[in-house]
Amino acid sequence: MSFFETRHLNLIFNFCPGLLQPTSAKGNPNITRRMGSFFSTLGRVWFAIVLLIPMVAVAGIIKLLSCCLSKKSLNGTSVVLVSCAWQISLALTPWMWITSANNFNEKLQTLNKQVVARANGVKDVRPVFILGNHTSFLDTLLTITRFPSSIAYQSRTYMSSYLFNMPILSTICTGCGHFPVHFKGSGDTDFSVDKVKIAATQKLVDHHIEANGVLCFFPEGAMNGNPSEVRPIRYGGMKKALDYDAIMWTFTTNGNQIMWPRKAQMGGVPGFGRYSLKQVAPLGCRELVQRLKEQGDDETKQKLDHVLLSEFVRSEMQAEWVGLLDGCSQGSEGKKSK
Prior knowledge:
By secondary structure, this protein is α/β, with parallel strands linked by helices. It contains 14 helices and nine strands.
């Protein structure tokens, strides 16, 4: 561990004992809890400030750029601007300590080469899909800030339609060219959507993919209240991946649910997180499914392609999540896993 990392961790443990130390530690447990609660609140207030100010600035810039840029240029530029804004926000919140798994940079270089080749119209380069587990609002911030601008510029995602009606965020979502999903159900167990509106959205998604763009999304369909178990992967995204025979990557995170709890309006809680990148279908989703059927038993061979792909992606993301446990905050007290 470097000198900077040692100083950083000592600072967290000294100022946030209630979150990162067990209550049985030396001293009064009640005082420790109150101190932890105080610094947790202070961290959230600070994070709200450093998150809001850059986003307001970006929203204003997007408004100005919308008058002079084409839609595609505006969309890509807006995503890059948002990425820069969120990088500033995370850099100014150092008590959220987030690191990458081994070989992340090498894998990112491979992903970047694929995206750039596709963007440049290189022949026979498949579309690229990036899928992530979803346990916190922090997932979105972390994903886009860990990719270079060459990937961010090409990336779009699905977003719940209500976000397009929120101040500031509506300007950003529209400027980025993200795709609205009009849910009719509750979201936790009922993922039904407006079929007419989703058909229009899917046309926009298809146009983006065919224009050599990257599709990023959370295939679980909703934020997971039980982060230790990846939710079943929804079939819609798998069908589209098979339709386009996409190269598929997973971007898996662990610990975000502590630093920005699922039901909290704002993050900023001290904690430790990690993330990883894995290429699960380097030769395309169709080749992957065919290989799984050839290697599987009779039951596997009888499964529909999108069902088999869904199950495989879920198992891969689950394995990645477990592999990230070491060094991440877990549980209600945000203790670092040993």
